[in-house]
From TrEMBL:
Transferase in keyword set: yes
Entry-linked SUPFAM superfamilies: UDP-Glycosyltransferase/glycogen phosphorylase
One Pfam family linked to the record: Glyco_transf_4
All copies of domain Glycosyl transferase family, residue ranges: 191-345
Organism of origin: Chryseolinea soli
Name of the protein described by the UniProt record: Glycosyltransferase family 1 protein
Amino acid sequence: MKKKRILVDLLNLATSEIAGVGVFARNLFDLWLKEPDQPYEIVFYSSYVVDVERVLGIKPSKNIRIKKIGLKHVLARFLYQQVVMPFSLLRYDLYFNPTLGIPFLARITAPTTKLAVTIHDLIPFFYPQKYSRLRGILVKVVSKYAAKAAHRVITVSANSKKDIVNIARIDPDKVTIVYNFIPTTPLLSNAKDEHFFLCISTLEPGKNVENTIRGFARFLEKYKQPIQFYWAGRVGWVYTQADLDNMVRSQNMVGSFIFSGYLDEEKKRELLTNCTAIVYLSHYEGFGLPVLEGMMYNKPAVVSNNSSLPEVVGKTGVLCDPLDPESIADAMQQVILNRDALTKAIPAQLKIFSPQEQLNVFKDTVNKLLWPHRRTP
């Protein structure tokens, strides 16, 4: 049987310091590419900006190739996607973008090629302050077009599916949920508590940095707990490191609220092992991967009472109003007082995000696109 050809578009990855979208891709490929007797040939298009072999663990083989595109600037990569790539699609049976976007000309230049895209969230529609005005408009246009043009949309939560269906006005049956997952064995037995809260995230406006700092300051003032706060992640857009340091200084929390920068996997595991709980107070999330990462280490969480976060945390955490420092402070106290009960709920919640189950859903989606009229191999 002739193998089907799949183009996986990774040109949107702009840094080796991957966060939610990049981690989803890495975890998915980690399992998918290890499957024996793959009935397809897969070509990954990536730029020289990101070493996908190292960062995503993609290893070239007989049926897996990496095509490097020598474009570093984001605008140049975008133009390549929109002008050059559409004419390459005729050589492929399936185009898949695990980040966001579909070439606008794809339906015209390659009418027989199936199109699949992962849309993790629709943040600009719910929290436009996250991006500059121009970038926000671009992400809105690209998101809606991708949802409409794709033969199949993959998203990472029921909440994101609801938002995509409502905003893009597409058939719910066109959207498949493949939850984020961690493709490793839970390290529950190694969990400790060194008395600090942990947030793992890029530092940008959508992550509600200022209210997180205010809420923790109120928690220390109100409950007098001997605990610190570590924020692990690179400085993203809008903020500078000086801005962040000034926020902490204004709340008299120098030494209590610590920005540790972007961490490699080993250092991140160390923080996850030793923290008291995860704190994740975003204005809007498509999923909230750090909450799941915390569960893998038997850690409860304090999360916003919005978007996908209640769905992901289930009964393993405490919800709060992310705009109210008093609500945040009270939730931090509750997660400490009720930690035993919250952690007991973690094994059941983790079953929802079973790696093998999510991989099976993804493979079934791909195979139905490639072999729509017969049983998939």
